[in-house]
Amino acid sequence: SSLRVVYAFAREMHPKTSDVFIQYGTAGFRTKANLLEHVVYRMGLLAVIRSRVKNGRTIGMMITASHNLEPDNGVKLVDPDGEMLEQSWEEIATRLANVSDNDLESTTAEIIKQVNADMSLKASVFIGMDTRYTSPRLAAAASNGVIALKGTPKEFGIVTTPMLHYCVKCRNDNTYGTPTEEGYYEKIVGAFKNIRQKLPVYGEYNTTLYVDGANGVGGKKLNIIKKSLDGELDLHLYNLGGNGGKLNLNCGADFVKVSQKPPVGVEHVPFQRVASLDGDGDRIVYYYVDDKDNMILLDGDRIATLLASYVTELLKSADATDLKLGLVQTAYANGASTRYITEELKVPVSCVKTGVKHLHHAALSFDIGIYFEANGHGTVVYSEKAKKAINNISKDGEPEQRKAAQLLLNFIDMTNETVGDAISDLFLVETILCAKGINVKQWLQTYTDLPNRQLKVTVKDRNAISTTDAERRCTSPEGLQTRIDEIVSTYKSGRSFVRPSGTEDVVRVYAEADTQESADKLAAEVARAVF
Ligand code: NG1
Ligand code: ZN
Question: Which positions fall inside the Phosphoacetylglucosamine mutase AMG1 domain (predicted)?
Fold first, then answer.
């Protein structure tokens, strides 16, 4: 059959060259780029099958390893609504990625049968990639996989991960926007400009923003956006990939958050706020350097609380307080942020397992759900009920209510609801700082972070550790949690947990305490207990 030819082609063009077992984890498949070509090809096949199971709706494929260094790469699938691949398919993806070339044909046939795909339907797959030099070759392998099963690939070239999610969503739901990079700019940047007309710059806010682009795709796209801004925001862009700057190396959101150090390649002016993006543009943290060269970090928790406080204000002004606002965090959220949200903002918080799909899912249970990982990955999701109610108020409310509801509508347009998005989040943050007329020091004053430390420990088998209670406690190996409890009890305001990473072969240790010295010591002690 013609499929025979397809599998023969796979063996020749994208042969499986490694026997290392590879697993579809929190962020898809991620490893050294040279081990990935056959995996990406096979995900092209799977994307076609997935598209047919979804009645021909478009599926996304993103080639990226996010905040990892240049030699890594990865691939993940995006579901029709722009969400992460449904969890039950992760196992299927893993199976297909690991079979031998000889078994590829029979395994593909088994999967088609198992998921009941009608292979006579059309199939459409959108493919995007980050700036890694290995990405074009992998994107080509993805396309070949799609074509092999007679699907239609559309390559978007270099885009941020959230742009691809956005385009997939728009392609399947044209009320959300136009499924192109230009359509993305029109919607998100358009909403930002619109809001700036209504909320002119005032108070302590100023329009100068420095950006650390991590030498990845996010900075490059902001450089395009910069040209269309008319003084609404004065972007100074650094780490755009030129001048020998290496992707994510000593720069970018993950480096800044984990090392608690400012990135290289950025010119530092005391008290100037800087936004730091990650390599594929789905994470953002803010920071500034003070007059004594200390770096002060405003992380994902800080962004989440800013969003929650502003949305609460607007809902009040719009007299739409019957809409339930909620916030979702993970165990990595700073304890001080959780306290501030519950006690000061009086917004309900839920804590879920690490991984955006868990946060996203939990956020959907609120009328308006804000979710953020401490590392800067997050967004806001609005239910149909919320959108309708706000829309009605924007038309029929009292003048003050109407004004607030119209701002909320712009706010919704500025949000990439499909997934955490550094560019969209940047515009949301800048809008709120401007609306509140505050500078970065005033933003910091809302609460004081507990000093904290993150460590990685390499162990023989990271999966020997299992966890419960949103990863805050471990259930195995036996005795470890008791030991951690003992250690933690000797620290003032101490909190610590360990969990196996879903993206690296390490165990992560997190600790917070009343001083940085104590947090560092606590993390080190717990790391020794794990080892
Ligand atoms: P792991 O490696 O499972 O800790 C990391 C991040 C997650 C998430 C994923 C996907 C931390 C502590 N963990 O997961 O939040 O962003 O990568 O990129 O930041
Ligand atoms: Zn990322």
Answer: 178-285, 299-437
